[in-house]
Amino acid sequence: PPAHSRSDWIGPPDRHSNLRPIIFHVPAEESALERRLREARQEAQASNQRFWARHNRAFRQEKEEFIYSRLKAKGLEMRDESGRKATLNAEEMADFYKDFLSKNFKKHLQYNRDWYKRNFRITFLMGQVALVRALRWLRWRKKNVEP
Amino acid sequence: GLFVWPLRNTSVQIPCQFVQLYHVANKRLITFQYCNILKRMYVTQCKRDLSQRAKPKSDSIVSPFHELQQLDQEKKVVHKISPVSPVHQSWSGTSSRNELREMKSAAETEDSVIPVGAESKECRQWREMKLRLDDLPGILARLSKIKLTALVVSTASAGFAMAPVPFELTCFLLASLGTGLASCAANSINQFFEVPFDSNMNRTKNRPLVRGQISPLLAVCFAASCGIPGIALLTLGVNPLTGALGAFNIFLYTCCYTPLKRMSIANTWVGAVVGAIPPIMGWTAATGSLDAGALLLGGILYSWQFPHFNALSWGLREDYSRGGYCMMSVTHPGLCRRVALRHCLALIGLSAVAPVLDITTWTFPIISLPINLYISYLGFRFYRDADRSSSRKLFFCSLWHLPLLLLVMFTCKKSVLEKEDKGDPPGGSHERALGIRLP
């Protein structure tokens, strides 16, 4: 994002976590409340990024391993004659999906709790910041309108 | 009214069956207009290789899933595992090199179709997070899932139309508007809760909050500014019962269904109730009381949700598993298929109960039997075969089954006049928005 920009910028999805990174603009006259908001958002972003990158990586890895082990059990190689990767159909993969979901259940519960808490806190702070800004603007208007 | 989307390359299956059934229905004067509007809702965007199937007339459980992607392409197990880049994507990376690499790898990571068109290119660049007022209507439409809302409103209208009272236009409009606003609010809150999960699922990753087009605060404010007037309109402009049902439905959808999706498979049943409530609301808006008829209509919608959703979720198992959603299709596949079949059969039973409750004449179970039997047959095939093709067939069948069933129900509706004075000729005195009554 350009240096003179006064707003936040959001980027394309990260290849591991599929989340879009945000670069936050730090205004010179940032108030304590605004700083708290920005830090909360940065912290949430970092935490989400960590969780999903790790989670998706684990998924891909375990999926590879599963395919490999199943193919081996069937006596096939990872790649067939033409060099393309051998696949398993959806029904065979269903066992893997079920397994993966149950293995990560607790992890997801914990993450959900954290995410909801963070989301509410950030939105509430946004509300506070917006309110303060609105009041400030009204006061400024009043000052400038009156002679 | 209903959203009419241009028809582009629909699958051949749907129009053919429509025409077939139209003939089977003995050339009744079903308003062809209505059928056409519904047909047009099945938009296939071949360009992006996404099939957008607008789900007819129900809220909730399919609401997150009303964009069905080309399953053949996506669900290939072969995953192009892109080589792990040696340079870790730096978060506050401002160097253009990193951006470029991120953009390239983002293009690789897309295990969905290769995006075409300007919109997708826009997604791959860094965008300023500033709200543009001219984008706002489009953004809010997507936030409130406007197409789904339109279908929910039409379900509620069906409930209103089936109520055995003279038709009142103002009441009808107020009820529809209130329901629509309530649905917008519920959908916005749902998206507000699900941002990181939506980012990780192919179907939902282009939502406004995921793309940063709107701030969470604005989403919540929008939801409040839709929900509060909507419920107020229902409570004060229609009747308190409808308002209470609307508020309860919002609560059920946002606070029960949405969190439950990630905790237990019970979410499907809760979601089915959410889908069943709008027609009940339509009925109570017309009559002011919760009769057996309302419950029957709700029951039909409730049962319909299962074949519809279970068939759909069959093809999305990978995304659910990775995203951490607890769905029957992943954890209890046998149950998933059994429940779908069970409820297809329940639809036959419920259709037979309708004349007993004096809602329709005896012609209704007879006419609806072919379509109910057909969906039950597909449900049975799904139960037995448990593969993608049977699940898709069942899903697509459910899309036309419901509107057709409700239409037939309406045309078989027992006239209020008929019940009061047997001598007078029927029809004429009440103008209906849809269809013409049969002698």
Automatic annotation (TrEMBL), chain A:
GO cellular component entries: mitochondrial inner membrane
UniProtKB keywords: Membrane, Mitochondrion, Mitochondrion inner membrane, Transit peptide
Pfam families attached to this UniProt entry: COA8 (PF10231)
Main location: mitochondrion
Annotated localization: Mitochondrion inner membrane
GO biological process, any: intrinsic apoptotic signaling pathway
Topological relation to the membrane, as annotated: Peripheral membrane protein
Transmembrane segments: none
Protein family per UniProt: Belongs to the COA8 family.
Protein's UniProt name: APOP1 protein
Species whose genome carries this gene: Notiomystis cincta
UniProtKB/TrEMBL annotation, chain B:
GO molecular function per UniProt: protoheme IX farnesyltransferase activity
InterPro entries named in the record: Protohaem_IX_farnesylTrfase, Protohaem_IX_farnesylTrfase_mt, UbiA_prenyltransferase, UbiA_prenylTrfase_CS, UbiA_sf
Catalytic reactions of this protein: heme b + (2E,6E)-farnesyl diphosphate + H2O = Fe(II)-heme o + diphosphate
Membrane-spanning intervals of the chain: 241-260, 267-286, 362-382, 394-411
Name of the top EC class for this enzyme: transferase
GO biological process: cytochrome complex assembly; heme A biosynthetic process
Chain intervals for the UniProt region annotation (Disordered): 419-439
Membrane topology term: Multi-pass membrane protein
Pfam entry (one): UbiA
GO cellular component: mitochondrial membrane
Alphabetical list of PROSITE patterns matching this protein: UBIA
Signal peptide boundaries: none
Highest rank taxon of the organism: Eukaryota
EC number: 2.5.1.141
Keywords assigned: Heme biosynthesis, Membrane, Mitochondrion, Transferase, Transit peptide, Transmembrane, Transmembrane helix
Cellular localization per UniProt: Mitochondrion membrane
Family: Belongs to the UbiA prenyltransferase family.
Descriptive protein name: Protoheme IX farnesyltransferase, mitochondrial
Organism: Notiomystis cincta
UniProt gene name: Cox10
